[in-house]
Amino acid sequence: MVDMTCCSDVHKQFDKFANGKVQAGELPNWMHVSGKVAWYIFQGPYSELDSKGFSARVV
Q1: pLDDT at 13
Q2: Are the beta carbons of 39 and 23 closer than 8 angstroms?
Q3: What sign has the CA pseudo-torsion 16, 18, 21, 24?
Q4: Are 42 and 59 in contact (CB under 8 A)?
Q5: Would you say 23 and 16 are in contact if contact means Cβ atoms under 8 Å apart?
Q6: pLDDT digit string (tens) for 1-56?
Q7: What is the distance between the terminal CA atoms of the chain, rounded to a whole angstrom?
Q8: Secondary structure string (H, E, C) spanning the chain
Q9: pLDDT confidence of residue 58
């Protein structure tokens, strides 16, 4: 069983990063991911993810 932080707590911590730059570093312990990672937060409808979100295309 994985305990999730309340949605309002997640929004308080991460909304400021929405639709911004790719972040790099360590995530909070409650996310159960250890070590340095790169992450991006998209806020909006899924239909706009490819046009307004982070696009990582391999060439």
Answers
A1: 85
A2: yes
A3: positive
A4: no
A5: no
A6: 455 556 777 888 889 999 888 899 998 888 889 999 998 888 888 888 878 776 65
A7: 39
A8: CCCCCCHHHHHHHHHHHCCCCCEEEECCHHHCCCCEEEECCCCCCHHHHHHHCCCCCCC
A9: 45
Encoding tokens for residue 34? 């250890």
From residue 46, give the alpha-carbon distance in Å to each of 1, 15, 49, 54, 59. Answer: 28, 17, 5, 12, 23
Distance CA 35, CA 26 (A): 6
Give me the amino acid identity at 4: M
Q: Map tokens 């990672």 to a residue.
A: 37
Instruction: State the residue for tokens 């997640």.
Output: 10
Copy the structure tokens of residue 6. 């309340």
